[in-house]
Amino acid sequence: MKKADPNSPIPAEEAIRRSWERCAANGLRNNEHLPDGILPRSSLADRLEGNARLVAYAQPIMEHLHQQIARSSSTILLADDAGMILRAVGDADFAERAARVALQPGVSWAECTMGTNAIGTALAEQRPMAVIGTDHFLERNRFLTCVATPIHGPAGGVLGILDISTSAQLSQIHAQALIQTTAEIIENRLIESLPEAAVTIRFHPQAEALASPLEGLAVFNEAGEMLACNRRGETLLGIGDSRKERPAFSRIFETRWTTLLDHALSSSLRPTLLCAHGGREFAARVQAGRLQALRPVAASAPDMPAARRGVTLEDLDLGDQTVASAVRRARRIVGLDIPLLIQGETGTGKEVFAQAFHHSSPRRDGPFVAINCAAIPANLIEAELFGYRAGAYTGARGEGARGKLREAHGGTLFLDEIGDMPLRLQAVLLRVLETRRVTPLGGGPEEAIDLALVCASHRPLKTLCETGEFRPDLYFRLSAMSLALPTLRERSDIEALARRILRDESPDRPLRLAAATLDVIRRHQWPGNIRELKNVLRLATAMLGPDEATITPDHLPHDLIDAGETRPTTQSLRAAETRLVEETVARHAGNISAAARELGITRTTLYRKLRRG
Length: 613
Ligand SMILES: Nc1ncnc2c1ncn2[C@@H]1O[C@H](COP(=O)(O)OP(=O)(O)OP(=O)(O)O)[C@@H](O)[C@H]1O
What we know:
This protein is an alpha/beta fold. It is built from 26 helices and 19 strands. The chain has a five-stranded antiparallel beta sheet, with helices on both faces. It has a five-stranded antiparallel beta sheet with strand order 8-7-6-10-9. Helix 3 runs antiparallel to helix 20 (472-478) and helix 25 (592-599) crosses helix 26. It is globular, with a radius of gyration of 31 Å. Pfam families: AAA_lid_14, GAF, HTH_8, Sigma54_activat.
């Protein structure tokens, strides 16, 4: 086994000393070469997806933290529970130095490969760590000053690590306090957004401490069982690890559950008094916003046609692998406060997907509000989104407007062609996403909004970020769960999709697609994707005679057949049919009944076809 460099000073602090011993025991040397271990983009994307909730909640908070310490030559890092760096938000000058020691997304800073360091050692020790300069086991990392702290999940256990790294002087105490508070904010967001959470209670013995980092936070399901509580809450209530046993509300508090709910449903903004057993009293703010939304919808009986109950995510899966995976991924964030970003060529079904997401979510009883950012003049989008007071600007309607953001309250807002949103407005949208509050143009009271956000773009947003047309911070915010819908020509379920569209288009008249028609459909390039297919089938249906129930190539528009594609003509189809009929009759030695049975037609039809041939 290799030994630690005996000339290197072993730092005194207990945790650091233990870490150095682990490093030495693992055979690390102080002058170890940089491992060539950057994860390929696809694997990093998998890790990001596996940690989608953590990343979605941490990212904006990391950006906020970075604004506070901007220009300090530092970076804020988020790593997963194995020390793999998932996200970095920081100053460009430091990013360059950090990259030289691979302090960047896609690289693991687990202690076993990177030696003593704040991320890896905080994980190994399961506690906040400061690792300063020569505390680092590897010489090349000794220009770094890092503080890190674990982020705990609502179900207990460490989800990841939050870290500030810098090459500059850092007030260790200040940085540790900052990172600790930031991690707690992320932990609180994860608790609040638990999908089963019906009631959220924030509490503190002093009303003035509500809405501060000192408040306790606990979430309960509809039945009054505690789902999670933050660490401050556990201390305030004097309960142990709330995750192990879900204590009932009534075991902790004297106040009746129903009294609390009545208060929450009538005036959730006013604090109320919460009495715990043993005489302790707390000021509490209670939110029960999701109680209504979580009630099951009677209308979604399984045998009801999709068109009437609203298409759900499952309805979209007709067998294509890419679509199936998109459906699976979207399912994961249903009901969470994580935006969904859908990218894909025009007509690939992005809006239909957004609607299906809405209909599959607990907000399905709320409104689905769509806004196409490309279709509204840039100077009006803001008014469309935020609404305005009467007379707020020239041309404003006399009575004012609520704005789409407030209209979508309790439901889903679909921002189509988000890539076309003007840059200035992108900044405003980002702020709304962070604060979840809107103020109408021209003033008026600020309102809290609760909505699911789905965005779509046919232009790749990442490229728009590179060309400066889209704000990277908004992109990160929106892309925590991003999926790409395949073009129609790439889809393996095109036949099933065509049949589905026919059924939706003429529900009372069962129509068939002839084999030759399916052939044409399979070979066409479909530049307009599903929209084009739908139009073609609509037209073909209109071309059918009153007694016809099968769409043949003759019913299709002539320009459907691209240059270079050979269109099966009626003649060649007839010839093929006659050949098939004659061969079948010959195989059955002239037995017309047997041949007709094999062909699935009546004897009379077979005779007619033979006569025609
Ligand atoms: N899974 C589907 N089943 C049946 N019809 C669909 C499906 N997906 C999309 N369509 C139909 O295809 C057409 C285009 O769909 P949609 O508007 O959702 O596409 P889009 O990607 O949002 O287009 P654009 O980028 O041009 O806004 C619509 O008429 C829609 O009804």
